[in-house]
Design brief:
With 348 residues, the chain is an alpha+beta fold. Helices cover 60% and strands 7% of the residues. The chain is built from 13 helices and four strands. β2 (34-40) and β3 (45-50) form a beta hairpin.
Amino acid sequence: MNNQLKKYKFYVQGMHCKSCVLLIESELNDHSLVERTIVDLSGGCIEVVGDFKDKSEEYIARELSLLVEKHGYKISTERGVVVGDSKLNKWSDFKIAVPITLVFLVLFLLLQKAGLVNLVGSDGTTYGTAFAIGIIASLSSCMAVVGGLLLSMSATFAREGDRIKPQLMFHGGRLVSFFVLGGVIGMLGSAFTLSVSATFILGIIIALVMLVLGINLLDVFPWAKRMQIGMPRFISKHAQGVTKLNHTLTPLLVGIATFFLPCGFTQSMQLYSLTTGGFIGGGLTMLSFALGTLPVLALISFSSFSVVKSAKKGVFFKTAGLIVIMFAVLNLINSLVAVGIIPPVFNF
């Protein structure tokens, strides 16, 4: 064992979910002087073990911070917030986020009334809602891991002079795998023949998962980070490890692996797929979600687009959080209506 290894504790600003944890650990563990990294989401801090010689903690924090700033995070030696991200600014973002959310809510209810998007349709599927949630997910920090993998893969293949084909393989693999794996989940749900009570309980769980996800995106209630659930860690780490393979099929495999990354949005849609009752319903639900994420991920592929680098990222995340909370409440209401506990509220 290297006797020069020392343990350091730093603080991180900008973390929202378990995707952030996985991305930060992956970036820092690639540093040549870092032995291991442990990220504490609820505490907003990281523990880094490495051999940094006689460098000061401030110097190490700046060096590590450079590795994750491209993803919207900041590492420092003291707990607190960076300039421009104060508590006052966090709350002031709601002045823009709330009106945008209200407009979105009105439009969504109008489309719902017209039958163009359905939270609960006659066949139990939620394609319109899945697509809308996919759009929101692509603008949130929960897509940080997917965006990070995509950027890393793009840079690698661009250096080799191949820019277009890997992108097409990634997005194609992602869409096909979401349909197929979503279909498998739908088949599993049908195999167990979920009762009305089981479907109701699953609907409540979905609503709660989305509620916690939305609250965390608001970034004003640190306690909510302790309540997040996620994909088992060993699955997520193996899924991300696919990017380290050097093979022609790597972009395709990375696209497939994104199904298993710790994104709360993806997991909520996977839970939905259980209730669809078959392969086609589950597959189309997950495909609709993946199609919703496609425009922003395509922008990431062929440009330097990044929400986390935007001066208005606080507004983006708070708007996304409020909309997700809206979806959680609407789905909770619809679950209660479906079992007859309350009468229809919006006459959907």
